[in-house]
Amino acid sequence: MLTSYCLASPQLNWGDDGAPHSTQFDDVYFDKDAGLEETRYVFLQHNQLDERWKSLGSSNKSHFTIAETGFGTGLNFLCAWQAFLASAPSDTTLHFISVEKFPLSKSALTNALKMWPSLETYSQALIAHYPELSHGLHRIELAQGRIQLTLWFGEAEEGFSALNADVDAWFLDGFAPSKNPEMWSPTLFKHIHRLSHQGTSFSTFTAAGIVRRGLKEVGFEVRKVKGFGHKREMAVGELAEQTLSLTERMSQGEAWFNVRQNPAALPTNNENQNKHVLVVGAGLAGATTAYALAKQGVNVTVWEQGESVACKASGNPQGMLYPKLASQDTPVNRFYLSAYLYASKLYSQLDDDAVFWQQCGLEQRPTSEKEKQRFASLLENKLYPESIVCKHGAEGSIFLPLSGWVVLTDLCHKLLDHPLIDVQLNTRLDALTKTGSVPLSWQASTQAQQQSFSHVVICTANDTHELDFLPKTPAYPIRGQVSYLPLEAAKKACSNANEDSAKLTTEHVLCQKGYVSPALQDTLHFGSTYDAKDQDETVRTEGHCRNLRILESLLHLKENTLNEEDCGGRVSFRCAIPDYTPMIGPIASPVELHSHYAILSKNAKWKCHQVAIEQEGLFINIGHGSRGLVSTPLSGAYLASLITNTPSPLEQSIINKLHPNRFVIRALKRSNAN
Asked: If we measure between CA atoms, which residue out of 164, 77, 189, 63 comes closest to residue 127?
């Protein structure tokens, strides 16, 4: 099934004063005369945000979450951002979640926000980080991580069903209910309730019956108060009682995929500054996880058993950002699309001077006639915006302008260079035991030391099998040999073979059956072999021969032009998972899963909201295979959201597909089928 990630554009009219007007809904985006005052009155004042934010530090809560219906021009978000920085303690974080079916383009957003010069600093930052207009969930980090914006581009009901978050206040905005009644469905209100805890507040500019009744039916107390300006009334209220725990609300019938810790099970003083997380492994997975946690104010210790950072598969000299986007709308493809967009922005933010990251783009050539037809269909059906994928050349290729290449070791060092991160090399995790109950902690041991941590994240790739105190995983290694060829040697070989050495120069990454990146320090890096069931760690001549034939094909050189004796190389082992999807999330005992969820072996469609196995703060992050540069940054942000108990940057269906429990659950369900 071909499914488009492109979104319908809003139909706009621009008034003489520059204000946007929706012709689809015959309504304005904001009051052109008093838009700021209306936002501050309706949403900030009537959710009592100033007082609630000021008390964040003393209430032992370090973050606050707002969810909104209808992002529009982002005016409500910008006002909340400005007010939060003015009111909240400096060590707290604002999470703002919003949905938008018809997102504005970056140029339309720029035009709309010109009307509010007092917000220019904030609006310019939003515009600079505004996501590509593709269907799904997008995470944007602003103000050095203090402001976290999560945008869902698509239907509101679909977006809120995808969320895994605990909301403190609702901005029920959007076009007037009389103009857009379809949005205010019973399912939408059920998800508003699911995402709310006792005391969660709401405010809305409207007093329409469809909104008030919907909120009352799911348990909110609703009051009418004076509206803004000429509007006579508006509605406000809060959720008086929430009988379901956080884990029950997030489970949505699949309790075996729980990723949350109930706040009631945590000590009242266990906010970010009191957490101390152990990350085991200093490759891409470990470095991005540590970085995401440190950005949220969490102290992190990284144990690496090797002598250097990124000493194994993450240590190749030049890696490429290569998402391999599919034509099908699956949770796994949505994960890689979201992760790709997130990674591209993160690398650009980390390396303004283009020292270790070059966003030069990537040309993906078809490997067969079938793939050529798939690329053509992908372009013809406009499955992705052109800013993500477009046509390239006459060979049936596609081009990914947001891609590029990275010096992997430099990236890992940059990620780990943070005052809240302590990296300890030559340090192997030998034992791990639970201690205490509330708060639960983990005693981690090496040959030289023992230390207590609030959470532990295992990022040890293929070495995970050596940790016999953890449940076994289905991960397995795949050998890969990359080759290096000095440009001078390549030019000489071309001259000897009467080939044009200009072909050695490529301005972007080339991929087909292998890859080559633009030269780094006058050296071409290319490959890579894919050798299953091969544990040989030595660099082999035959591997160079295979890689050179791939390189010659990519550069349109005659076969056997380049010489293997001129090559250097490196062998490492990808960590692969049988379903080609990483394992990311909390670790649970297979024995306990079988015990508590055995009904699945008799009824594979059984639904369960009651979480039987509590998440205890032990996580795994492995199995990124050949796409770690794409998948690890968002995976790290996701794990940080679980540890800090903040909104997930991944939609729930993706969480389930990444969950380490999925293999046990599949086996239980298949035993029913057999």
From this structure: 77
Pairing of strands 421-424, 357-358: unpaired
Measured CA to CA in angstroms, residue 385 lies from 4, 228, 347, 363 at distances of 9, 39, 21, 16
The gap between the terminal CA atoms of the chain, to the nearest Å, is 29
Helix axes 408-416, 284-295, angle to 10 degrees: 30
Q: Which stretches does DSSP call E strand in 328-402?
A: 357-358, 362-364, 390-392, 397-400
Please compute Rg for the chain using Cα positions: 26
Residue 360: CB atoms within 10 A of its CB come to: 18
CA distances from 55 to 179, 263, 271, 645, 648 (A): 38, 18, 14, 19, 24
CA–CA dist 305, 327 (Å, integer)? 40
Q: Helices 408-416 and 331-350 meet at what angle, rounded to 10?
A: 80
DSSP reduced 3-state for 516: strand
Contact 404, 359 (CB under 8 A): yes
The helix/strand/coil state of 545 is helix
User: Residue with structure tokens 């030269």?
Assistant: 519
Tell me the helices (H) and strands (E) count for the chain, helix number first: 19, 32
Residue of 147, 141, 160, 166 whose CA lies nearest to 65: 166
Q: Specify the pLDDT at position 274.
A: 77
Q: Count CB atoms within 10 A of the CB of residue 599.
A: 12
Query: Which position has the token pair 């469809």?
Result: 210
What pTM was computed for the model? 0.95
Angle, CA 116 vertex, CA 113 and CA 119 arms, to 5°: 90
Name the DSSP class of 201.
Answer: E
Which position has the token pair 């990444």? Answer: 658
Enclosing H/E stretch for 199: strand 196-204
Q: Is residue 420 within 8 Å of 306, Cβ to Cβ? A: no
Which residues of the chain are modeled with pLDDT < 70?
1-3, 12, 14-33, 59, 174-180, 264-273, 437-438, 672-674
CB contact at 8 A, 601 and 669: yes
DSSP 8-state assignment for residue 72: T
Average pLDDT, the chain: 92
Q: Map tokens 């090797």 to a residue.
A: 306
In the chain, % helix, strand, coil (3-state, to 5) comes to: 35, 25, 40
pLDDT of res. 216: 97
Would you say 183 and 81 are in contact if contact means Cβ atoms under 8 Å apart?
Answer: no
Q: Between the CA of residue 644 and those of 95, 287, 292, what are the distances in Å?
A: 12, 17, 11
Query: What is the spatial distance between Cα 495 and Cα 498, in angstroms, rounded to a whole number?
Result: 5
Tell me the residue type at 168. D
| Residue 103 C-alpha from the chain's centroid | 20
Q: Nearest 5°: CA angle at 324, between 319 and 327? A: 170
The pLDDT value recorded for residue 590 is 95
- Strand pairing class (523-527; 476-486): antiparallel
In this structure, what token pair is assigned to residue 20? 């946007």
